[in-house]
Amino acid sequence: MIAVRAPATSANLGSGFDVFGVALSHPADVVAVERAEETTIEVTGTGAQYIPEDPESNVVGAVADALDAPAHIRIDKGVRPASGLGSSAASAAGAALALDRLYDRGNSREELVPIAAEGEAVVSGTAHTDNVAPSLLGGFTVSSTDGIRSVDASIPLVACLPDVAVSTRDARRVVPETVDIESLVDTVGRASTLTLGMCRSDPELVGNGMIDTVVTPARAELITGYADVRDAALEAGATGVTVSGAGPAILACCRTSDRRSVAAAMVDAFLEEGVDARAYQTEIGPGATVLDR
């Protein structure tokens, strides 16, 4: 048996729609695999009741098919489905690494990214890599048409998850189909600032680079209380706030000394809107790791 811990992720980071992603130190899924004649799936943990165990409908089933690696796969969910924290990507990334090791396929982590992305297509309809890449590689990742780049970064973060759901398909539906040149120039500038901030592990630059006037406003409309939560986080010391992935989680960048107060402010702001929420005081972390069993 091979077991892998695969971390939650946050994609887009505001200005990097479908391109940027970071691995979070926590929460995470644990995926355990054993050889079998055909693939079967067992799911436990957070939101397990909402996840199909049919291999045709589960992300890890698609990964097992792509690797030609049938197995009994057990997923212990630590990342809630429909959270905006890469729940399906964590399962897909964990399964890809675990099955590759189980069958000794010899793929690099970079080579496993498009395989894990096949699992993402089961959920969202698109084999995008902005979540599976950081879950496998760790750190800050940039997914582009000419490949994936990653860099280690030390940035304190708060991921605040309200007790509501936003589907990836709905979140993609509201994304504008066109953008004016002024918005394009601003987005490129913000994305460049964020990238520089990641390379320097500078929360101020990263926070400034998270500002986005194209995708984030449209997705924020799907999250009850987003504006108030964002303002509360900024007042508590956050350097930047944005929607995490498709939402409803909200991601705040901050300094270590402000992380606790930012987390509390975000939870309180959701409560003011009548919404329960949980805040993860986290940071950019490593990618999937094989566990000793």
From TrEMBL:
Query: Which top EC class is given?
Result: transferase
Q: In which pathway does it act?
A: Amino-acid biosynthesis; L-threonine biosynthesis; L-threonine from L-aspartate: step 4/5
Q: Where in the cell is it found?
A: Cytoplasm
Q: Which residues form the GHMP kinase C-terminal domain?
A: 198-269
Entry EC number(s): 2.7.1.39
Report the residue ranges that make up the GHMP kinase N-terminal domain in this protein. Answer: 62-139
Q: One Pfam family this chain carries? A: GHMP_kinases_C
**Mind telling me which Gene3D superfamilies this protein's record contains?**
3.30.230.10, GHMP kinase, C-terminal domain (3.30.70.890)
Sorted alphabetically, the Gene Ontology cellular component annotations on this record are:
cytoplasm
InterPro entries the UniProt entry points to = GHMP_kinase_C_dom, GHMP_kinase_C_sf, GHMP_kinase_N_dom, Homoserine_kinase, Ribosomal_Su5_D2-typ_SF, Ribsml_uS5_D2-typ_fold_subgr
Tell me the GO BP annotations in alphabetical order: threonine biosynthetic process
Catalysed conversion reaction: L-homoserine + ATP = O-phospho-L-homoserine + ADP + H(+)
Q: Hey, what's the signal peptide range on this chain? A: none
Example of a GO MF term: homoserine kinase activity
**UniProt binding sites for ATP:** R80, P81, A82, S83, G84, L85, G86, S87, S88, A89, A90
- Keyword Transferase included in the entry's annotation: yes
- Protein function: Catalyzes the ATP-dependent phosphorylation of L-homoserine to L-homoserine phosphate.
Entry's family note: Belongs to the GHMP kinase family. Homoserine kinase subfamily.
Entry's PANTHER family?
A: HOMOSERINE KINASE, HOMOSERINE/4-DIPHOSPHOCYTIDYL-2-C-METHYL-D-ERYTHRITOL KINASE
* Protein name as it appears in the record: Homoserine kinase
Primary gene name? thrB
